[in-house]
Structures are given as structure tokens and as C-alpha cells.
Amino acid sequence: CIENSKETKNVHDTSSFEGEQVKKAGSDSVECDGKTAEECDTEEKGSDVETSAQRKKSQKAQSTGRRERKDSTPAVYVPVERRPDIQESRLQLPILAEEQVLMEAIRENPVVVVCGETGSGKTTQIPQFLYEAGYGRDAMIGITEPRRVAAVSMSHRVADEMNLSRRTVSYQIRYEGNVTPETKVKFMTDGVLLKEMQKDLLLSKYSVLVIDEAHERSVYTDILIGLLSRVVPLRTKKGNPLKLVIMSATLRVEDFTQNQRLFKIPPPVIKVDTRQFPVTVHFNKRTPGEEYLQETYRKVCKIHRMLPAGGILVFLTGQAEVHALCRKLQRSFPTACGALVKKTAESKETKKSKNEAKLPKIDLDNYTMEGEEDQADDGILEEDIDLETHIVGVDDDDDDMDDMDDSAATPTSDADLPMHVLPLYSLLPPDRQQRVFLPPPQGSRLVVVATNVAETSLTIPHIKYVVDTGKVKKRFYDKVTGASAFQVTWVSKASADQRAGRAGRTEPGHCYRLYSSAVFADFQTFSPPEIARRPVEDLVLQMKDMSIDKVVNFPFPTPPDVEAVKAAEQLLVQLGALQHTAKPKNPKAAQSPMVTPLGRAMARFPVSPRFSKMLALGEQHGLLPYVISIVAALTVQEIFVLSGTPAGGPEEQAGVKHVHSRVAQLKKTWAGQGQSLLLGDMMVLLRAVGACEFAGCTRKFCEENGLRYKAMTEIRSLRALLTNAINTVCPGAKVYVDPNMRPPTELQAKLLRQIVLSGLGDRIARRVPADQISDKSHKFAYQSTSMEEYVFIHPSSVLTKTCPEFVIFHEIIETGKPYMHCVAAVEQEWIPLLVPNLCTFSEPVKDLPPTFDNDTGRVKCHRTSTFSKLGWQMPSVAGD
Ligand code: CDP
Ligand code: MG
């Protein structure tokens, strides 16, 4: 059925792009053809007028079983010869009933939204409808997926269903694909399409783009939809229309349909009604904590032993968990081949995967265009999980049988059924993924242990029971450095319901939630879109790197705060990641700074811009391991045990005092002399990280040396994470986590001071002459860019005695007084050179005549400089 059917003849809006342009990489600009809203409207309305006449024609054609074209749509029905069994199973899919309505809507509207329950046939069937309607004749039908697993698996499925080769129905994911010049239907990740748009904004190779899983609201899907909302009318104007189909598994599509900035007139929504059988939801009485994996195992065992035949689908959070549970189940029950998996073979496998897990290897796709949550456990951050050591007495523990339904009262004859256990997660090779779609061997029970790829991306047939841990891995961003990591968290209510729905596709089913109804009541209704959680600075830089210059006006489905976007742009200009173009083509373009080569280098690093600048410079000077350690350490609030009045009896007090004096002594040693001391608290951090790593980061070492064990382990993880991220994005860097990191040399310490200044340049403070300070409790006060009142170096800093004239700090925290934390000294003459965007420069100074640089063949002249914000006079600099 069509919602908004009155709006079927839709007009595509461009008004909110406000004359903005989307530019291609480099300085060549592919303008949105300077299209104004009015032009666009008129044009599309023009085509609207034709539509109703053509619709009649097309209806006539449809009644004769043929599809007719209007100017903008393909001409010829392309027949597909499907195998009879495929044809039969297709006919069961609810989307088939909507084919005509859907194709009509697509024919008549530039943008159509399709909503249908998971499993209704959207992903596998709509590309086929489009192909048969001739959209693949002169150009490609493109389908984007947020997950690679779906792109690969769906391309294979559609090729098979249509009896076409994989040369015709292909996929492209990052680094891998089987696209050929003959490809007509192309499945790809959204990241791949975004990259293609940088080269060809108008996507001239495609006649239709289908954005699948739009409800997931991944940041790249949102950006794609924003970009495509502008590309579609441009293509219409060029006489080569592009159709956009947005597919969602939920009905919550207002951000796309009711968003005037995106589409002035709401696109029609085609709802696909799905036959869904009732699913009885059972909550656990108590919610397991860390041991939810054991609880999952117990529940699967019980279902298998007590309940009638029917597949079980288990939702876990990541690959390691999936494997652990699969192994354990395979060991506990006869497999479909009739044998228990031999322990010896298993233990070898366990050992092997444990060794693999030790390798400092993390799939850093997490940081790139194709981040997928369930890959995050490929690295050292999580240990391989061995359920064996945790599980006891599963067989006789029947305490909570009453939360199963009545039919479970007595064990069924299925109790001795073999179990056909299959894992499912993003990185599973496609042929192994494919196995979940096949019927299990005769007489066995299918158990699919999956990550949330099985929630909406892939529909697994033959499922009657769902076991839901209620957990998912989500990317969380560090507020300080912007570094992100995946953490396990509760799903939303919408996700939990989606998961439950998987049990009722072919007959009534049951969903066992391994958490209490009280816990469920606290779940968020929907997960907020990723764009709302991502740090704005990082988003702006990433978009600029994608050659999207006008981020402020960008038609996001859910826009970030405009002021925050502007502030982020300003910071990026300050850091030199963006630059205002010298000669803008039009005055509006001048307001939109473009990405610089430094900005491009920074965009590769998965941290916020201040830190990515330090990393980019660290890479340039071969100092990456040090910079990584500093960045990792800065994310952690305090690495030393907190000072203050020791609590407890005299013995404890003496102990605490001992630790404090140890800390003071260590800080002094670690700070050293010369350049090392001038690197100040950053040097202390660096040496603490090095020393702790050398000692194996043990709790004992930390306690003996007054270091917070938790902080040090966090730093350790983050170092590994960043190191791996950098190796992935810059393979030339070849950086590794060195357990024997030597302290930096004098020269290296000096360079590190400069690097830190480059990143934290606006967090600078200058010593105030002593006679100007009324607060005599401090030797020196500082004037900073951050606040009007004077600030002080925190007493715990190693630079309290030195009190250099210029310092940079990591943050100011008010504890009685505004104290600068994590301070390093910088030289005045570096400031105009390293943070030029914070300085103003005079005209060339006459007293200092220009010089000719033989090496570069350029004339250098001298200018005086001022630190703009505070009017400090800076030394003169020579430049072009
Ligand atoms: O996209 P949507 O969730 O609406 O459904 P779909 O992914 O197109 O799946 C339609 C049907 O095809 C489901 O019943 C799947 O189980 C089935 N399918 C399959 O048997 N093998 C595949 N490789 C993919 C889907
Ligand atoms: Mg789908």
C-alpha cells in the first residue's frame, strides 16, 4: 500500500542546499549545477504533468503483463528465467504482492521509501524487479548495504535467484569484489558508494540506487541520503534521471520523509505487510551480569532438550563469543553427523585461536568507511573466551524452567536430537554464511549463533526460538581524544523487538530474553542515529575529506548542531586541516574552507583533530610510537593515584604517604633534564607508559609505583588500538607496540614539544610578570586563551619550579583555582611557525631585506607577528 498516495507525483526539493556546491577531490568543482530550488521544482513539476498520462499508458501496459516506459524510465521488460523452486519460494514473499504498486511508484517518483519487516523480501526481490523493468539495461542498479556480509551474500543470492552469473550480479566491498563490465546489479557497502561519489558525483553509471537498511542510520547511510537528495534532481535536469529507493525495516522513517531540508515534498512510503506469527516473549527473572554467555548456553541447552523441533537463533555481540558458544554446544551435543566433537581437536582449535587472539591485530575497518560492530573482537582487546572454564552443572540446573512456556513442561522426544550449530557474523567467509540459509540435516536441530547481523540484514529461515542476550557492540567515542572503541551495551527496545520477530516468520515462536522485564523497561525506545553520537569535529573533517565542503548546510536526515559544526570548522582551520580558498569562484564558496593535504593526512587517523594532527606530524618525523603513547595517556583522566589526605588507620596512612613520595620521586626521575624536562608532564606520561609496559603492565607494578592500574590498562588497550588503526590506514608507518620503548632523545623530546604545540596550539598560556599577581601563594600566574582570569600550573606538575614563559596544557580544571593540567613548555619563536592560523602577520618588514632561497628559488621576506587573541608580540618570521 502507498502512504501519502496523493504525493505520489513527487517533487524533489533542493531548496535547502542554499546554493551550496559539492566539490570533487582537488580543486575542480563539480557544482550541483548551480541549481536553485525553483529550477528544480519547475523541472520536476514539468515531468509531473506528463506523468498522469503516462501512468494510464503504463497501467495499460501492466495489464497486458508488460511494462511500458515513460521518458525517464527504461524501455523494455527484461525477462528472467528462474528455476521453478526459486519461483515458488519467491511467491511466498510479501513483497511480491506489492511489485506493481512499488514499480509504479518508482516510475513516477524520483524518491521512494519502502518499509517492510525483515524477511519480507526487500533486499533480494527489489533489485530483481528493477532489473526486470529494464533499469539495468543501459546503466547499473546499485544497492548499498551498511554491512559487508550482506553485500556479498545478497549479490550471490540474487544472482542465483535470477539464474544470472556473478559477472552480471556482482558485489564490491572495500578491497574485494567481482564487478565486471557486464555487471548490471551491483551490491556494495555504503562506504564504497561514497568513494565513488568523490570521483563521479552524479553517479552516471547508475540508473537506480537502492539504500538498504536505512533504519540502521549509519553515518555513511545518512550522508549518502543527504548527497543523493541533491544528485537526483541534478540527474533529472541532465535528462538522465536517477531513481532513489530508500529501504527500511521499521516504520520509523520520518527523518527521511518529513524532513523538509532533505525532501521538500515527502516521498511516498510503500509499506509491505508481512505475515508475522505470534511470538511469545519470556523474560528472565534475573538479569545475568558478566556471565550472560553461560546463561545463553544454559538456555539453548534447555530449549534443545525440552522444546519441540524448530531452529534456535542466538544473538550475541561478537565473533569471539559466537565461536565460544558454538564450540561449547558442539561439544555438548551430538552434531548433525552423529558424533560429539572430539575434545582433542577442539582444544587444539582453542589453543590456536588463543594464539591468534594474542596477536596485536585489530580489524580497523572499525575506523574506516566500513565499520562493523561485530568485528571489534578480532584483536587483543578481548581475550578469546573459553566457556569451558566457566560452565558448571548445566545438565541438572533446571531452576528457571518455569519461564519457558507450557509446552516445555516435559522433555520432548527431540531431547536426543543432534544439533546443527552454525556461527554467523560479518567476517565469516561467504560460503560459510550461506549455510545458515539451507535446511539443517534431516533429524537435527538448527542452532544459529549470530551477532546482530541476523537482526535485520540477514533473515534465517526455519527459526522458531530466539535467545536474546539483549546486548550489542556499539562504537563509543572518547570525549577527550575522539578515539573510538566498541563496547558492549544494551540494545534498544526496537532492536529487541526485531530480534524477537525472527522467531515468528513461519509459525508461532518463542523469544527468550536473558534479562528481566524491568531491565527491558529501561532500554531506549530506538537507538539514536550514529551521527548524533559521533564527535562533530571528526564528522566535519571526514566529510571535507569526502569533498563535501558545505557541511553547515548539508541536508542531513538528522542534522548535527549548526553552531557545533561551525566551531568544528573553525578549529580545523586553526589546525591547518582546512583552508579558505584564496580565490573563491563565488563569494559563498569563500565561507566554506576546503581540506588541505595536512587535513587529508589527519582524516586517516581515528581520533579527534587535535590528536590526529599530532599523529600526522609524528608520522612525518618517525615519532609515532611516542605520539601514540602521549595521545593514549591523555585520554585517561589521571594516571597516578589521587593525592589527598590518606584515610584509615596509621598503617594505611603511612602506606599512602609512602606511595605519594614514591610518585614524587618517580615523576622527578621521569621528567629528567633539558628538553626532556621541558616536555614536562607529557614526558612523565610517556615514561610512565614505557615503564609500565616494560614491567608487563601488572597490577603489582602499578601499586608499587602509585599508578592507577585501571588507567594503565586502558592506556595499554588504546595504544594497541591506535597502533593497529594507523598500520591499517598508513601501511607505510609500520609502527608497533614496543614493550621496550626507549625514552626519547634530546632531539626527539624537542620535536615532541613542537608536535604537541601544533596540536594543542590554542591551549597556550604565557607567564605573567610577578608584580602583576595579587595571589602571592603562587610564584607565577599565567594568562591563557581559555579564560579571562589568571590560571596556574597544577602543583602536581613537574614544571611548577621551572615555570617557563610559554606553556601549553591539556586542560584547565577548577579545583579551588583554575589549574592547568598536563603542561609542557614551548618556545616563543615556534608559535608563529607552528600555529600560524592563531597569529596575524604584518606586511614585509622594510628593515629586514628579503632574501633569496637558492634551494627553493623563492624570495623570503620577514614579517612580524602577533598572537591574535591576546595581542602578544611574537618574533618575526621569514616566509614566501
Ligand atoms: O530484505 P528483507 O529483510 O526484507 O528480506 P530478504 O533479505 O530479501 O529475504 C527474503 C527471504 O530470502 C528470506 O526468507 C530469507 O531467508 C531468504 N534468503 C535466503 O534464503 N538466502 C539468502 N542468501 C538470502 C535470503
Ligand atoms: Mg534486507
From TrEMBL:
Report the enzyme's class at the first EC level.
hydrolase
Region annotated Disordered sits at 393-415
Q: What is its EC number?
A: 3.6.4.13
A GO molecular function annotation here is: RNA helicase activity
Alphabetized UniProt keyword annotations: ATP-binding, Helicase, Hydrolase, Nucleotide-binding
Basic and acidic residues biased stretches = 20-48
Q: Which GO terms describe its biological process?
A: maturation of SSU-rRNA from tricistronic rRNA transcript (SSU-rRNA, 5.8S rRNA, LSU-rRNA)
Protein name in the entry: RNA helicase
